[in-house]
Amino acid sequence: MNYNECQSAKYLYMKVAIIHYWFITRRGGEKVVETLLKLYPNADIYTLFYDENKYGDYLNGHRVYTSKYNTPFFRKHYQKLFPLYPMVLKSLRLRDDYDLIISSESGPAKGIEIKNNAKHVCYIHSPMRYCWGFTNEYLESINIFLRPLAKYFFGRLKKWDETTINNVDLYIANSKNVAKRVQKFYNREAKVIYPPIASNLYEKPLEVIKSKDYFLSFGAITPYKKIDLLVDCFNKNGNKLIIIGNGSEKEKLQKKAKSNIQFKGFLDSKELEGIIRYSKALLFPGEEDFGMIPLEVMTYGVPVIAYNKGGALETVVENKIKVSESSGIFFNQQNIEALQQAINSFNIIEKKFNSSWIRKHAENFQESKFLQSFSETIDKLIQK
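Request: output the structure for the sequence above.
Response:
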């Protein structure tokens, strides 16, 4: 029996509920829940919205309870329903007296009503960005005539979120960056456990590919990800760029993009792997809470060009003296000039990057380390 099996056996008779805001797309937060289910295979799952057709069969075999608003209409518009999150969450009621409740959180999940003395651990990806620290960025992406209304609802949601802070016994942050936000906005300490990068990504042999002719963007196409900056930059420089992902900004940016920029949408794992392997570098222009995608790309030995802020500071290593011990380079401002300068610098030193070193660095974040740290943290909490 391996370590993971031993841990899951230990928790077999503990009643555990895992609450996650929604399962509509499969991104970093959802992958964390899937990993937690390896520790707690009998856990019940609670969520506001669940679209099995879009999400896939990753939760098959587990009991999934949803809010009464889990309808096609609400699932379609889930991101625009933020003023209703407290009401939607109120309709999501725990079905048992659990021993342990884990909320996977960058939305309202931690506010679920707990009627017994269950320990509540919040694995926090960030305090809600549109309420805490990034309100203006979200308002700028909204129609100018609707901004006053949105600002009002952001304020109301922030006040409600404040009432849920002490519903949690222990905060676990996905990065030092987020732990600082938890301290700043919630006045609570948070232990840092980096999110898990799937072990199978480290098992495939690294290929030496001599000819690479395009850059890569991979992830949700939403305003704070700054994919618009990439489109503006590559419209100007004419270099090849492949953008993988979907999101609210996709249609607008597709219309704007020139023929050197390709949008690929959602891809299956085999096609995705091929595109990553043959890319020169991943472009990561947003300020992320943590960012699992750069590490996933690094497992293929591919370096990253990242904005010098947020979670990327904890995953991207830039060694200007010895490039062979770097996993990427940074740029300091979110504008075309700074990004283009970084791309130019990268093109000069591209051959000096060491794909084996990049993968070795990414191994520091593999799934087994997450499972061990999380298990030990829960043990200490329960023993208290």
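Residues 93 and 113 are 7 Å apart (CA to CA).
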